[in-house]
Amino acid sequence: MISAWDFRRSRCRLHEAEHDLIAKAQRLPDESTSGGVERVLAIDDRVWFKVKIGEYRGAGGWVVEVPDDIPPLRWLVAGGLRRADSKDQDFYSALEAECRRAAKGSPAAVNSDHLLPQDIDFRRWRTEQATLGVVALQRVVRELICLPTHSSRPVEGTAHGQGLIAWVKSQDGETYLAIATEGFLDPREVAVVLSAVPGMTADDWQIEPGEMLGIHPGVGQLVYSAMLPPESLAAMLDDSAGGYL
Predict the structure, then answer these.
(1) Average pLDDT in the 163-176 region?
(2) Residue 98: CB atoms within 10 Å
(3) Least C-beta-crowded within 10 Å: which of 107, 137, 209, 237?
(4) Are residues 77 and 182 in the same domain?
(5) Phi/psi at 102 (5° precision)
(6) Count: domains in the chain
(7) What is the Cα–Cα distance from 221 to 162, expressed in whole angstroms?
(8) pTM of the prediction?
(9) Which of 63, 82, 117 is the last residue of a domain?
(10) Residue 166: φ, ψ to 5°
């Protein structure tokens, strides 16, 4: 039987994992809303739904027993194989037996507490959310760098009390990049911003004490500058919605 434990060592986001059962489970919210799901009736201490695709079988549902900082989510809590020729080894029969054993000694007929996400799962979820934040911020940084490449003037972006200004300028056969940050109180966030440029390291950047490429640091702003390698700019433009010049 496959449970959440088997996926905890995975290094990819679970919705991108190459497994048919996981891919099918991603459709559980929509199927539940449309009434196209089937309950696991034998395990009735909670509402679990069947997830079926090919020879694979799973159980998933809405989990509300979560820490305060995590919203209720739908989880695929267990999975296995359909064994039509063996009731004892068939996934749903085995899962029912497992939950009946877990309830032994209690008034309840079944207990599916052990199927719920554990602390390690919640830590994984928090890590994924932080990673998504990093990916989104770095995507914004790269787009801000690409825009002045097209317009030849500084481009500014702000969100949630934080701001970025980027300017790219070519001079004497070299390409200069300046990034001004405002409202980034955590140095790790600044590191995320500067590491968004492919092919560059922290050693490539320097803090400018004054005006740089037309950017005049204001109160609370820090300006970082670097020589922008052609291959770094090409890589960003290749991924940018605006494309090449």
Answers:
(1) 87
(2) 18
(3) 107
(4) no
(5) -65, -25
(6) 2
(7) 10
(8) 0.72
(9) 117
(10) -125, 140
Dihedral in degrees, nearest 10, Cα atoms 6, 12, 15, 16 = -120
Structural domain boundaries enclosing 27? 2-117
Lateral strand order in the sheet of 2-3: 2-3, 73-81, 56-63, 49-53
Sorted by sequence, the CB contacts under 8 Å of residue 94 that are 6+ apart come out as 1, 80, 88
Contacts 24+ apart (CB under 8 A), 182-191: 182/218, 182/220, 182/221, 182/222, 183/220, 189/137, 189/162, 190/222, 190/224
Q: What are the start-end ranges of the H helices in 56-206? A: 91-102, 119-151, 187-194
- In-domain check, residue 124: no
pLDDT of residue 53: 93
What one-letter code names the amino acid at 151?
A: S
At 16 the pLDDT is: 66
Mean pLDDT of 8-24: 69
